[in-house]
């Protein structure tokens, strides 16, 4: 019996369209898988159903009635529970206290701890047998925390449970336990929505699959009636995109010299990034692809000397150096344009001018008094060069559009002696015009000035268009390298999804 | 030795080892050591009279430390507790008239309301307006000081005779003999402290008690779980205010005066006591009862200094150094661990 | 604050129209409030609105403003920075150097040296504990204040504080040239220098950046810990030097000299429009804030409300301003 039906859901954030036509059907007692590449809209869909976002259009029918949730609490009250990754656990309380947090029962004025412990035990003994529910949450491993988070949602006795990438932090054995529990839960009548980037997991546990691409639902496969064919699924995920056909790849002028500019070796003790080695040639644009959150940002931080848990040794233009702090990278011309421009790349209340000149002050040989006239001139040149649309250099950067903000983040490095440009998803949330300006400029930098570029783009279409070579990352490591003719949006996405 | 008996021998060691590794263990250890040293230095330490005097001198700090612990655990901090205490003493001694016993009752009621008021104002700033606790209680501490100075520009004021029951039951005429002889061994200060402990015991077993820890541990998680974080932090501030109120009763019972500046030094000492008692300044963890241990440790250090013939002037100096040592110690240890 | 004024005086919105440069709006608002205060005070209290009174206000406000500079340096760099030990550093310096100088100019140089060393020590300790050990600045500087006061108490215990400031200091801090207080001859160059450093040197810009967004500054290669450490050192040294001026103003040293300046220094910074989280603000605003607060104090004293009114007033104003700023943050 269908418990939830969503039709024609639309959602946009600013100028970016996240969903143009989202459709979903969930049945009681069934596990529905949501699949799709980065930016396909599947995550947005989950959040809309759970009441985290409000849709701009479309209808949602829950238990036969149309619903419009304004916040997650309303959805919760109707029996819809959403599990993120560790967003609602309190570290200093015990496992059982967390499971009942917010819905404790009391006997008189005192809390009924016995019942709470029983509830926790009932759920966790099946989800994660052997877990001591009296341990404090901060003592748990990330996988155990994720399980407790799930247990907490289940304790609310939802009728529709949405699990958003729950297996990302789990060990293999824990995944098995989770699946067994999900099966049992489904059998008791609960509807479950399950997203994962691991294709084989979805095929193993889900009863049906809804596939998203470019903001729309493109396929619905019911495993009861159709074959479970990974190739079919992958082809739906990558699709036959009309836009990025191989002919569109603008090769530009291939650089003559393939002289190696940078050799990097990363030794990591953290889980989010594995030991990685790579090479970068002069004038080359090296693309980093893969599903979101597979370590791409971490790789770039490491290369910029900004990742304390990781040791990065580079050989640049023949010189060997160890990057321990951001200064080490900057002084050698390795410059980072970070992933979150508002939180990591800009001083939002400060002016465009202040933002652009700031990195200069980190250089040791900078004069005490700022040569204002000279710098203003430089900034005006950069504004013109990158076509930054701003009324004056003194306007606060917060008044600029996303694209222009991103140009400022790039622009602040342009007066430096750039050797390697590290770009972490520079075009995310940027309008098409600014996107094109940025990428064209970067390509010119690479081709004309022999600068090496390492570009992470979550949109594989962009990668396909601009990268000379693509490394696909999965769970912190590099799993594939694509060159030349192999580079296309489909192949990059397919490789990302297929990875194990 | 067969396996079962081996188990019996090994088990206590394991329990002991695990217990010693807790941060609270070092506080308790320090307490016992200092207790011992003081007992040795002070000849009549174990006499009844002397024990009573010890409890009496530590009482205000103990009560303030407990209240401070509650606020800190909820994720805040109260820089105005000393000033609030001073204010309450001024309120009490201004309302009471020596010759009119009923004014004592009025004073009690009014002071209680004023105490609640201070808690509500602080709670409003911390919990609802979300102003950093440090700075909002810094501001309110001056507001309390100002009001206190209005009431009592110089220390003074009056107290009704029966008010001394909060300090020494024998001093009051109408008290039945039973209570008086009880008062020989169990001073009212101790009853106040026990009362505070009972109050916290009850609260800690309710939803509010659990939420105080949750909000202090991770306020976003608490909020997302449906907890009213503003109300929780406000309640923590109000509880603190009640404990400060008890301390004020004791002080006025003991000294029959109100003094707008007497509480100042106690604020930092109460924070020090909380830290020394093993409660994290970041909130979310620790036992309020250990704040008592922390206060006692500070008290004993003061005693030892006194007996070592170091002048009283050094008290503030020492408490400052202790605070720094108490918070720097664990931070340094964490830093060493991170760098490895 | 502006919106409140705009509602009560509709023409205020017109006055502060789009033609009025943005960075001066907050400063102008404070100036306006001060004028209002004097106007109101002049009506209620005879003799309040005289040139003499205003200059006296400026003289006393100068000291608040100087301590406010210490606070501003620490606060602007963000990270919850706050220095509650400034007044106490000043007191200790005054007490120690009084006997060194003993009323003569000869040992002024040594006194300066002692002040410098003391300021460096205090600032170093504060800086290491807050920046490298990551202890909360509030608690550290509060404890430091206690330690400093304890040292003063111990030094003072049993003997009277001897010594007088050198005449140079007295002239600078206490005396007037005609009707003009000499301390302003100290404040004005300091203010000009401070504003120049904040706006036009790399040090100032780095401070603003670190306070505005620690992560962005870090990724641009700035050593955030070192910067914050240095702000405490600067604050300590400055506070110590102000102690010399306090000594010059009072003529003798006593153990509570500086402690009353801590709260006003913070209030002046907040009223002056410097965000407590750091990253922005202007020293000019802090100076105006100091003047406003001192004027308020004088008014309260003139109305017979004395110390009590002063502290209550400070508390209420600080609380009110903090609420307004918190409200602004939430409505965004």
UniProtKB/TrEMBL annotation, chain C:
Any one Pfam family match given in the protein's UniProt record, by short name: BPD_transp_2
Keyword Transport recorded: yes
CDD domains: TM_PBP1_transp_AraH_like
Transmembrane found in the keyword field: yes
Keywords, comma-separated and alphabetical: Cell inner membrane, Cell membrane, Membrane, Transmembrane, Transmembrane helix, Transport
GO cellular component terms, semicolon-separated: plasma membrane
Membrane topology reported for the UniProt record: Multi-pass membrane protein
Cell location: Cell membrane
One Gene Ontology molecular-function label: transmembrane transporter activity
Transmembrane regions listed in the UniProt entry: 27-49, 56-78, 108-129, 135-156, 168-198, 229-254, 266-296, 308-327
InterPro entries given in the database record: ABC_transp_permease
Quaternary structure and partners: The complex is composed of two ATP-binding proteins (LsrA), two transmembrane proteins (LsrC and LsrD) and a solute-binding protein (LsrB).
Purpose of the protein: Part of the ABC transporter complex LsrABCD involved in autoinducer 2 (AI-2) import. Probably responsible for the translocation of the substrate across the membrane.
PANTHER family linked: ABC TRANSPORTER PERMEASE PROTEIN YPHD-RELATED-RELATED, AUTOINDUCER 2 IMPORT SYSTEM PERMEASE PROTEIN LSRD
Protein name per UniProt: Autoinducer 2 import system permease protein LsrD
Organism per entry: Candidatus Caldatribacterium californiense
């Amino acid at each position: 019996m269908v418990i939830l039906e969503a039709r024609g859901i639309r959602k946009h954030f600013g100028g970016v369209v996240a969903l143009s036509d989202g459709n979903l059907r969930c049945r009681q007692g069934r596990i529905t898988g949501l699949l799709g590449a980065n930016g396909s809209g599947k995550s947005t869909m989950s959040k809309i159903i759970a009441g985290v976002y409000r849709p701009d259009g479309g209808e949602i029918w829950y238990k036969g009635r149309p619903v419009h949730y304004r916040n997650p609490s309303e959805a919760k009250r109707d029996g819809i529970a959403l599990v993120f990754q560790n967003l609602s656990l309190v570290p200093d309380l015990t496992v059982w206290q967390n499971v009942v947090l917010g819905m404790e029962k009391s006997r008189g004025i005192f809390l009924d701890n016995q019942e709470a412990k029983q509830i926790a035990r009932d759920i966790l003994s099946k989800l994660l047998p052997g877990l001591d529910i009296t341990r404090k949450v901060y003592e748990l491993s990330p996988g155990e925390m994720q399980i407790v988070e799930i247990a907490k949602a289940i304790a609310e006795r939802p009728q529709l449970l949405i699990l958003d990438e729950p297996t990302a932090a789990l060990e293999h054995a824990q995944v098995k336990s989770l699946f067994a529990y999900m099966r049992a839960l489904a059998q008791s009548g609960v509807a479950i929505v399950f997203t994962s980037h691991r294709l084989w997991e979805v095929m193993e546990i889900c009863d049906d699959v809804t596939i998203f691409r470019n903001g729309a639902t493109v396929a619905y496969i019911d495993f009861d009636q159709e074959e479970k064919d990974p190739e079919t699924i992958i082809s739906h995920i990558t699709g036959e995109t009309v836009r990025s056909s191989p002919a569109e790849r603008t090769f530009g002028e291939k650089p003559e010299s393939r002289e190696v500019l940078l050799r990097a070796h990363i030794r990591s003790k953290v889980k989010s990034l594995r030991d990685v080695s790579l090479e970068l040639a002069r004038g080359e644009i090296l693309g980093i692809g893969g599903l979101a959150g597979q370590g791409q940002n971490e790789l770039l931080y490491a290369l910029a000397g900004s990742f304390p848990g990781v040791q990065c040794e580079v050989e640049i233009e023949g010189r060997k150096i160890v990057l321990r702090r951001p200064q080490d990278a900057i002084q050698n011309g390795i410059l980072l344009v970070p992933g979150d421009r508002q939180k990591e790349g800009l001083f939002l209340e400060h002016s465009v001018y202040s933002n652009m000149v700031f990195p200069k002050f980190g250089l040791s040989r900078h004069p005490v008094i700022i040569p204002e006239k000279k710098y203003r001139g430089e900034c005006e040149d950069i504004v013109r060069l990158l076509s930054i649309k701003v009324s004056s250099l003194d306007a606060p950067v917060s008044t600029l559009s996303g694209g222009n903000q991103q140009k400022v983040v790039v622009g602040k490095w342009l007066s430096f002696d750039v050797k390697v440009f590290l770009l972490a998803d520079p075009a995310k949330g940027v309008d098409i015009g600014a996107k094109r300006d940025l990428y064209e400029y970067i390509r010119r930098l690479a081709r004309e000035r022999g600068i090496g570029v390492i570009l992470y783009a979550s949109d594989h279409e962009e990668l396909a268009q601009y990268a000379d070579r693509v490394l696909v990352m999965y769970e912190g490591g590099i799993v594939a390298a694509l060159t030349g003719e192999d580079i296309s949006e489909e192949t990059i996405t397919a490789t990302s999804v297929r990875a194990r | 030795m067969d396996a079962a008996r081996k188990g019996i021998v090994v088990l206590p060691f394991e329990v002991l080892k695990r217990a010693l590794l807790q941060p609270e263990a070092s506080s308790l250890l320090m307490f016992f050591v200092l207790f011992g040293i003081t007992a040795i230095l002070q000849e009549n330490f174990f006499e009844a009279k002397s024990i009573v005097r010890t409890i009496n001198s530590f009482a205000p700090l103990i009560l303030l430390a407990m209240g401070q612990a509650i606020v800190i655990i909820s994720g805040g901090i109260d820089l105005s507790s000393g000033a609030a205490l001073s204010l309450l003493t001024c309120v009490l001694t201004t309302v009471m008239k020596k010759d009119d016993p009923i004014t004592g009752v009025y004073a009690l009621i009014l002071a209680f309301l004023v105490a609640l008021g201070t808690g509500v104002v602080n709670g409003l700033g911390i919990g609802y307006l979300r102003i950093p606790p440090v700075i909002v209680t810094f501001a309110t501490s001056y507001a309390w000081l100002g009001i206190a100075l209005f009431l009592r520009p110089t220390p003074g004021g009056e107290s009704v005779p029966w008010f001394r029951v909060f300090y020494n039951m024998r001093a009051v005429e109408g008290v039945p003999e039973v209570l008086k002889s009880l008062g020989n061994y169990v001073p009212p200060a101790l009853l106040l402290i026990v009362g505070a402990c009972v109050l916290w015991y009850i609260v800690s077993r309710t939803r509010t008690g659990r939420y105080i820890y949750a909000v202090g541990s991770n306020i976003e998680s608490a909020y997302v779980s449906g907890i009213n974080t503003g109300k929780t932090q406000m309640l923590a501030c109000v509880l603190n205010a009640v404990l400060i109120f008890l301390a004020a009763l004791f002080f006025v019972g003991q000294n029959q005066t109100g003094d707008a500046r007497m509480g100042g030094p106690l604020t930092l000492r109460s924070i020090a006591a909380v830290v020394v008692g093993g409660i994290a300044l970041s909130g979310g963890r620790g036992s309020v009862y250990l704040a008592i241990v922390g206060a006692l440790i500070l008290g004993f250090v003061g005693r030892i200094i006194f007996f070592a013939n170091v002048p009283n002037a050094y008290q503030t100096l020492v408490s400052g150094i202790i605070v720094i040592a108490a918070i720097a110690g664990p931070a340094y240890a964490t830093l060493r661990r991170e760098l490895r | 604050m502006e919106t409140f004024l705009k509602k009560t005086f509709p023409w205020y919105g017109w006055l502060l129209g789009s033609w009025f440069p943005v960075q001066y709006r907050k400063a102008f608002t404070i100036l306006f409030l001060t004028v209002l205060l004097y106007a109101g005070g002049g009506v209620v209290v005879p003799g309040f609105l005289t040139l003499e009174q205003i200059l006296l206000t400026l003289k006393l406000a100068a000291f608040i403003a100087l301590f406010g500079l210490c606070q501003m340096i620490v606060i602007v760099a963000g990270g919850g920075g706050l220095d509650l030990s400034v007044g106490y550093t000043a007191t200790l310096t005054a007490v120690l150097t009084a006997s060194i100088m003993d009323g003569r100019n000869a040992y002024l140089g040594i006194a300066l040296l002692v002040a410098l060393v003391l300021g460096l020590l205090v600032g170093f300790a504060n800086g290491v504990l807050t920046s490298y050990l990551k202890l909360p600045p509030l608690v550290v500087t509060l404890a430091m204040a206690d330690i400093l006061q304890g040292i003063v108490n111990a030094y003072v215990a049993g003997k009277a504080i001897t010594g007088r400031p050198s005449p140079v200091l007295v002239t600078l801090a206490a005396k007037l040239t005609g009707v003009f207080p000499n301390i302003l001859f100290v404040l004005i160059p300091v203010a000009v220098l401070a504003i120049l450093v904040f706006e036009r040197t790399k040090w100032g810009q780095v401070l603003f950046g670190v306070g505005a967004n620690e992560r962005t500054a870090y990724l641009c290669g700035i050593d955030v810990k070192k910067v914050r450490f240095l702000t405490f050192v600067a604050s300590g040294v400055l506070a110590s030097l102000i102690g010399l001026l306090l000594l010059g103003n009072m003529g003798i040293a006593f153990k509570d000299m500086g402690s009353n300046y801590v709260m006003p220094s913070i209030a002046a910074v907040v009223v002056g429009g410097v965000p407590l989280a750091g990253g922005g603000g202007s020293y000019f605003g802090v100076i105006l804030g100091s003047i406003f607060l001192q004027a308020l104090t004088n008014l309260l004293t003139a109305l017979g409300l004395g110390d009590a009114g002063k502290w209550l007033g400070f508390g209420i104003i600080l609380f009110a301003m903090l609420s307004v700023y918190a409200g602004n943050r939430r409505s965004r």
